[in-house]
Amino acid sequence: MTPDLMEDRARAYAAHQQKLAGGSGGRAAGFGRPMAHGVPDFAKGVALYVEDVTVSFDGFKALNALSLSIDVGELRCVIGPNGAGKTTMMDVITGKTAPDQGQVFFGSNIDLLRLRENEIAQIGIGRKFQKPTVYEELSVFENLELALKADRRVRASLFSRLSGEQLDRIGAMLERIHLKPSAQRLAGLLSHGQKQWLEIGMLLMQDPKLLLLDEPVAGMTDEETERTAELFLSLAGEHSLMVVEHDMKFVDQLTQGRRQVTVLHEGRVLAEGLLSQVQNDERVVEVYLGR
Ligand SMILES: Nc1ncnc2c1ncn2[C@@H]1O[C@H](COP(=O)(O)OP(=O)(O)OP(=O)(O)O)[C@@H](O)[C@H]1O
């Protein structure tokens, strides 16, 4: 990796972040300022509250009076057939799609429907799309470094030297995502599963309170899937996680026979309960698991 390339990517990342922030006041303009929309209040134990949300596309209801909530520190799996509305639900939570009606709260006090996409990311909601997006020409370490320096709370300059504390944070993250031995490898040379872990690590560098993960183990080997389950289980408690997944073995590993699963169908919750309960629910078998 040449310093030029690193610098080039860092500038691109900074420009991207600035564009997301919607600011025209220069790169430093947004940094270090308190967030205008406040700090989420998790004292009541609720991380995410979705109530009666409807989204229509040309009259078709992709979400139809959807209601669900996720507790602080909870790991919730969401399953359901293609077209059930899982992606649309994540689009609403992250501000990409505005619903026709309903309420979406982060903690007990932050009305997400009043915030823009970039503000929702800044306030502590991280989203992982299905396909990994990492900087392939940068090393694993450099990818994490960029993510760390883009964090508005800690950022001084993209080109400043890392402090001892920052180095420690990156080191701890490398351990957590099983990539310590690959720290200096180019991200483009990683396996699909390793790229997914790296992107999750990049999200975690910004310490999101809620993580939305869309089919994180699609395309992974069995061993990678198992390690991903271990990683997510280690994150629960510290973070709240919503995992959309079709892989029932992975859902079983995550729920460990005791966590709730939500089944979406036709834009609303069809069933909620332990995996063993929803697997034996005739309605769920009919629309999803039995096919
Ligand atoms: N922009 C859009 N315009 C029109 N229809 C849309 C749009 N986005 C989603 N839909 C429709 O809304 C429904 C829900 O789609 P969504 O992608 O949320 O389902 P999903 O549960 O994520 O499915 P999958 O498991 O296949 O990813 C589908 O019927 C889809 O075709």
From TrEMBL:
Q: Which UniProt keywords apply?
A: ATP-binding, Nucleotide-binding, Transport
A cellular component annotation (GO) from this entry = plasma membrane
Instruction: Extract the Gene3D superfamilies matched here.
Output: P-loop containing nucleotide triphosphate hydrolases
**What are the residue boundaries of the ABC transporter domain, all occurrences included?**
48-291
Which molecular function terms from Gene Ontology are attached?
A: ATP binding; ATP hydrolysis activity
Read off the Pfam families from this record. ABC_tran (PF00005), BCA_ABC_TP_C (PF12399)
Keyword Signal: yes or no? no
The record's listing under NCBIfam families reads: urea_trans_UrtD
This chain belongs to the protein called Urea ABC transporter ATP-binding protein UrtD
Species source reads: Azohydromonas caseinilytica
Quote the gene name from the UniProt entry. Answer: urtD
